Request: fold
Amino acid sequence: MGLVSVQTQRAPAAVGPYSRAIQAGPWLFVSGQIGLQPGAADLVSADFSAQTRQVLANLGAILADSGYALTDVVAVDAFLMDLGRFAVFNEIYAAF
Reply:
């Protein structure tokens, strides 16, 4: 099975030596996303909700440009610096 690095202009470039996503056969493995805007080096906002929405939009763009949809996602690991914001994160996540 070959590995294919996913490229898209609709999500920010990786900020380190890793791929945004790797296609392995029928599987797509997406790397961690942060609230960067595509084509920018800055966070979309200092606001947690705006960053969460941007992360999910970036994820959706990577999936779509790879031929997948958010409904194809099997598992998500979310890392929050402040667990007190989990309810806000979960509300936004549920809307996607």
About this structure: The chain has one domain: 3-95. Residues 20 and 32 are 8 Å apart (CA to CA). DSSP finds two helices and three strands in the chain.
